[in-house]
């Protein structure tokens, strides 16, 4: 196997220790303002902003750099209405019997139910698909590696970029999500994993107190 092509590392920048800490603190404080929003204004979002955030998501690391993700941006009102109808059908089944009682108790502090008006009200929906395998130039299938991990990292980059741009988001995961593949015209190789709702919070928007409670550092980390 030939040696991989290499190039100089040019993008890295080392910062003075104090500057490094200030950047880390500022980033944390910025992300600390982020809240999941369920009430959206219908104002449109500039397409160029969404595209820049998608480019940011595309810089995420991935297994073997295969970048096994695809983002479908939906702004069409009719398509959003179809997605809402299909999602609410799955959600009604979920809340009326499919979900175990323990799961419903965990969701209770967030006040969620089968009604998902934000799927029509928000100006942008981004359906995130994981590519289970790839197709080469000869039409042959090849494996993708670390797909859930890679798509999860890219989704985190996307949410962070949207928040930094001044937009609110909601990670919606109706189960199952097979209807999204059909409504978005995606191939069999892809599986819908998240429906990301994007837009501006509605005037007077409220969010559940529970969603703002984050675990302290000692509960989420340890040093060896």
Can you put this structure into words, describing what you see?
The mean pLDDT is 95. This protein is globular. The longest helix has 22 residues, at 77-98. The chain has one domain: NADH Oxidase. A hairpin with a 5-residue loop joins strand 3 and strand 4 (141-143). It is built from eight helices and six strands, in the order H-H-E-H-H-H-E-E-E-H-E-H-E-H. The strands form two sheets. Strands 1-2-6-5 form a four-stranded antiparallel sheet, sandwiched between helices. With 224 residues, it is of the alpha+beta class.
Features:
single chain, 224 residues, alpha+beta, NADH Oxidase, four-stranded antiparallel beta sheet, two-stranded antiparallel ribbon, 8 helices, 40% helix, 16% strand, globular
So what's the overall shape? Answer: globular
Largest sheet: 4 strands, antiparallel
CATH topology: NADH Oxidase
What Rg is obtained from the alpha carbons, in whole angstroms?
20 Å
Proportion of β residues? 15-25%
What separation lies between the terminal Cα atoms? 38 Å
Tally of individual helices: 8
How many strand units? 6
Strand order of the biggest β-sheet: 1-2-6-5
Instruction: Output the CATH homologous superfamily.
Output: NADH Oxidase
What percentage of residues falls in helices of 4 or more residues? Answer: 25-40%
Structural class: alpha+beta
CATH structural class:
Alpha Beta
Low-confidence parts: none
- N-to-C series of helices and strands: HHEHHHEEEHEHEH
CATH architecture grouping: 3-Layer(aba) Sandwich
């Amino acid at each position: 196997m030939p040696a991989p092509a290499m190039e100089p590392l040019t993008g890295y920048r080392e910062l003075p220790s104090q500057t490094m800490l200030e950047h880390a603190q500022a980033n944390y404080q910025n992300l600390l303002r982020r809240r999941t929003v369920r009430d959206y204004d219908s104002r449109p979002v500039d397409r160029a902003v969404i595209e820049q955030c998608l480019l940011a998501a595309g810089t995420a690391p991935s297994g073997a750099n295969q970048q096994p993700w695809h983002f479908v941006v939906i702004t069409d009102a009719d398509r959003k209405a179809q997605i809402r109808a299909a999602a609410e059908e799955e959600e009604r089944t979920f809340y009326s019997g499919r979900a175990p009682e323990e799961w419903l108790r965990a969701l209770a502090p967030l006040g969620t139910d089968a009604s998902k008006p934000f799927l029509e009200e928000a100006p942008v929906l981004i359906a995130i698909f994981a590519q289970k395998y790839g197709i080469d130039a000869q039409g042959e299938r090849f494996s993708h590696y670390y797909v859930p991990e890679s798509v999860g990292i890219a989704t985190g980059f996307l949410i962070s970029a949207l928040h930094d741009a001044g937009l609110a988001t909601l990670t919606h995961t109706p189960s199952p999500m097979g209807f999204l593949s059909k409504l978005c015209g995606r191939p069999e190789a892809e599986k819908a994993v998240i429906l990301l709702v994007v837009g501006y919070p509605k005037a007077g928007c409220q969010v559940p107190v529970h969603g703002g409670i984050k675990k302290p550092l000692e509960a989420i980390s340890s040093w060896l």
